[in-house]
Amino acid sequence: MKLIIAILSIFLIWIQGMQTIVKTEFKVYGNCTECKERIEQACDVKGIQVANWNIDTKQLFVKFDSDKISLDSIHALIAAVGHDTNKRKAVDSIYIKLPDCCLYRDHDNTHHD
């Protein structure tokens, strides 16, 4: 009986831990491999397990622990390095410091949805 209770306890703890892992995708604006590196590097923080930005689709896939970081915080991290998301716009003074190849706001393919 004690063994069954111990196994159930471990199983419940494991399930609770799994519930905090979130996988999602959202739009992040950028143009090139420099953008990709900057966006993914901005996500290299505690709580984010995976961050992969697709240059063609402008979609960022993230897998994160919602007990350690919120989705809003992830949007803020990305905007802080000069990239707009579908929920947060980068401050203009940061955006204009991006390399010319990364300036996405003036390009036809980056209209916000």
Structural account:
- There is one protein chain.
- By secondary structure, the chain is α+β, with helices and mostly antiparallel strands.
- The protein has a single domain (21-110), classed as Alpha-Beta Plaits, CATH 3.30.70.100.
- The protein is built from four helices and three strands.
- A three-stranded antiparallel β-sheet has the order 1-3-2.
- Strand 2 (48-53) and strand 3 form a beta hairpin.
- The longest helix is centred in the first third of the chain and has 17 residues, at 2-18.
- The model is unreliable at 108-113 (pLDDT under 50).
Q: How does the major sheet shape up?
A: 3 strands, antiparallel
| Helix and strand pattern | HEHEEHH
What is the number of beta strands?
Answer: 3
Structural class computed from helices and strand pairing? alpha+beta
**Poorly predicted ranges (pLDDT <50, ≥5 residues)?**
108-113
Q: Which percent band covers the strand fraction?
A: 15-25%
Helical amount among residues, as a percent range? 25-40%
**CATH architecture label:** 2-Layer Sandwich
**Terminal CA distance:** 57 Å
Strand order of the largest sheet: 1-3-2
Under CATH at level 1, the class stands as Alpha Beta
